[in-house]
From TrEMBL:
UniProt-listed Pfam families: Poly_export (PF02563), SLBB_2 (PF22461)
Mode of membrane association: Multi-pass membrane protein
Compartments (UniProt record): Cell outer membrane
Polysaccharide export protein N-terminal domain residues: 59-132
Name this protein carries in UniProt: Polysaccharide export protein
Species, as recorded: Thalassobacterium maritimum
Similarity comment: family membership: Belongs to the BexD/CtrA/VexA family.
Top-rank lineage group of the source organism: Bacteria
Upper taxonomic lineage: Bacteria, Pseudomonadati, Verrucomicrobiota, Opitutia, Puniceicoccales
Keywords for this protein: Cell outer membrane, Ion transport, Lipoprotein, Membrane, Palmitate, Polysaccharide transport, Porin, Signal, Sugar transport, Transmembrane, Transmembrane beta strand, Transport
Record flagged with keyword Disulfide bond: no
Signal peptide: 1-21
SLBB domain segment(s): 140-221
Length: 226
C-alpha cells in the first residue's frame, strides 16, 4: 500500500513538471514578432517603440525625416553621446556644435556632416556613429464601416497592403460594403485622386493583385445599401 501511494505521488510530481514546462514554453513564444494595435486601430510594431539607445538596422541610404529619433555617439567621448528627435525644421541639437540640419540627408551623409563639424573646431579625427533609434510614424487612415476605424502605421522597412490595413482595424463591419472601397491619395503635386476597389475580389480571387498603400492614404469603407 505504501509503495502504491509512493508511485502515485511520483507520477503526480512528474505530471506537474511537464505541465509547468508546457505553460512556460507557451508564454515565451506567444509574443515574438507580433504587432500590437491601439484602441484607434493603429498598428505598432517593434520598430516603433520608444527610444532606448539601441539603433535600428537601416541602410546608409535611408533618408532621415522630422520626428525620426537618432542616436549620435563619438568614440571615447561619452559626454557627447545623445539620443534626440529630429525637429520640425529638420535639425537636431548636439553638444558643442549646436543645431545641425539633417532631415533630407541619408544616414551616411548626416554622419559625415557631424564628423566634419566636430573635426573642424573641437576634436581631432573624431569617430562618429549615427543610428536610427525610432522612425517617424508614417500612417494611413482607415475610416467608415470597419470595426476599429483610425490610423494604421506603415512598416518602416516594407510596403503595407490594403488587406493588411483592413486586418489592422479588425476587418470590415457587418454593415460595411467590401465591394466598393474608396482610396483617396494625394500625389506629389498636391492633387487628390480617388480609386474604387472591390476588396471582396482581392480576397477571393488568387489572381487579383492587392493594393499597395502609400503614406497619407485615406481608405473609406461605405455601408451596404439595403
Amino acid at each position: 500500500m505504501k509503495q502504491s501511494s509512493f508511485f502515485i505521488s511520483l507520477c503526480f510530481f512528474f505530471f506537474s513538471l511537464i505541465a509547468a514546462a508546457q505553460e512556460g514554453g507557451g508564454n515565451s513564444g506567444g509574443g515574438s514578432g507580433s504587432a500590437s494595435y491601439s484602441n484607434s486601430g493603429s498598428a505598432t510594431g517593434s520598430a516603433g517603440g520608444s527610444a532606448s539607445g539601441i539603433g535600428i538596422v537601416v541602410g546608409e541610404n535611408y533618408v532621415l525625416k522630422p520626428s525620426d529619433v537618432v542616436s549620435v555617439e563619438v568614440y571615447q567621448e561619452p559626454d557627447l553621446e545623445k539620443s534626440v528627435r529630429i525637429e520640425g525644421d529638420g535639425s537636431v541639437a548636439l553638444a558643442l556644435v549646436g543645431k545641425v540640419k539633417v532631415a533630407g540627408m541619408t544616414v551616411a551623409e548626416a554622419q559625415s556632416l557631424i564628423t566634419d563639424l566636430y573635426n573642424r573646431d573641437f576634436l581631432v579625427d573624431p569617430q562618429v556613429s549615427l543610428l536610427v533609434v525610432q522612425f517617424s510614424p508614417r500612417i494611413v487612415h482607415v475610416l467608415g464601416s470597419v470595426n476599429y476605424p483610425g490610423q494604421v502605421e506603415l512598416p518602416p522597412d516594407r510596403d503595407l497592403t490594403l488587406t493588411e490595413a483592413i486586418a489592422a482595424v479588425r476587418g470590415i463591419s457587418r454593415l460595411g460594403n467590401p465591394k466598393s472601397i474608396t482610396i483617396k491619395r494625394i500625389d506629389v503635386n498636391g492633387r487628390a485622386r480617388q480609386m474604387e476597389v472591390n476588396f471582396s475580389r482581392i480576397v477571393q480571387d488568387a489572381n487579383e493583385r492587392d493594393i499597395v498603400l502609400q503614406e497619407g492614404d485615406t481608405i473609406w469603407v461605405p455601408e451596404r445599401i439595403i
